[in-house]
């Protein structure tokens, strides 16, 4: 019930060089669970923003009244990575030794915010639900930890996909929960939900 809402939410998006350079933003109005209406869209060209500083932007909504006030900071991506199974970041014994030294008791108070990191190997899925009329699915896997999100590529026409990817997340809160969700890619339509599992970090 507000024409001037304040959200004060922060989101981290991991921007890699092979992604598109536009940040697309949509504002929606919800009456109830069934009815929602698009109030406007705006776009931010990430490549045009100065790096390593916070940019205050007032973005007019396209073809609709109103604007969005946002703070956007573009900084080098640290602690987050996607790699193939054969070049796993923890596969090198020298790197494992450096990490063990970095998180030993003697160095535990050197950087209070550096709690650690989580490495997840997403190997495969088995016996997924068929979402297409052909009796197959086009599955991809999304990993979320806090407000960090990474995803695999899509394996087309397969109910037993193999991704063999390694994902690394920095841990900001030891009480976070890793959520792993499998979706079926459906072209321009929203993806179909195929299943989900939640793993508390404290259980690892």
Automatic annotation (TrEMBL):
Main location: membrane
Keyword annotations: Calcium, Membrane, Metal-binding, Repeat, Transmembrane, Transmembrane helix
Biological processes per GO annotation: regulation of neurotransmitter secretion
Source organism, top-level taxon: Eukaryota
Domain spans labelled C2: 1-59, 93-204
Family annotation (Pfam families): C2
Membrane topology (UniProt): Multi-pass membrane protein
Cell location: Membrane
Coiled coil: none
GO molecular function list: calcium ion binding
Keyword Nucleotide-binding carried by entry: no
Gene Ontology CC annotations of this record: synaptic vesicle membrane
Protein family (similarity comment): Belongs to the MCTP family.
UniProt protein name: MCTP2 protein
């Amino acid at each position: 019930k507000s024409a001037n809402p304040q959200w004060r939410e922060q989101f981290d998006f991991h921007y890699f060089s092979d992604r598109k350079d536009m940040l697309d933003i949509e504002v929606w109005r919800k009456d109830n669970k069934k009815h929602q209406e698009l109030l406007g869209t705006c776009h931010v060209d990430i490549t045009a923003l100065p790096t390593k500083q916070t940019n205050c932007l007032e973005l007019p909504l396209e073809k609709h009244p109103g604007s969005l006030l946002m703070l956007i900071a573009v900084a080098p991506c640290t602690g987050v990575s996607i790699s193939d199974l054969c070049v796993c970041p923890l596969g090198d014994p020298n790197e494992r030794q450096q990490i063990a030294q970095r998180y030993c008791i003697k160095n535990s108070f050197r950087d209070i915010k550096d709690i650690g990191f989580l490495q997840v190997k997403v190997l495969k899925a088995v016996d997924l639900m068929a979402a297409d009329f052909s009796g197959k699915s086009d599955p991809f896997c999304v990993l979320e930890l806090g407000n960090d999100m990474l995803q695999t590529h899509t394996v087309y026409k397969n109910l037993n996909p193999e991704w063999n990817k390694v994902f690394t997340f920095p841990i900001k809160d030891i009480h976070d929960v890793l959520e792993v969700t499998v979706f079926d890619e459906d072209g321009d339509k929203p993806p179909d939900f195929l299943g989900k599992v939640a793993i508390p970090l404290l259980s690892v």
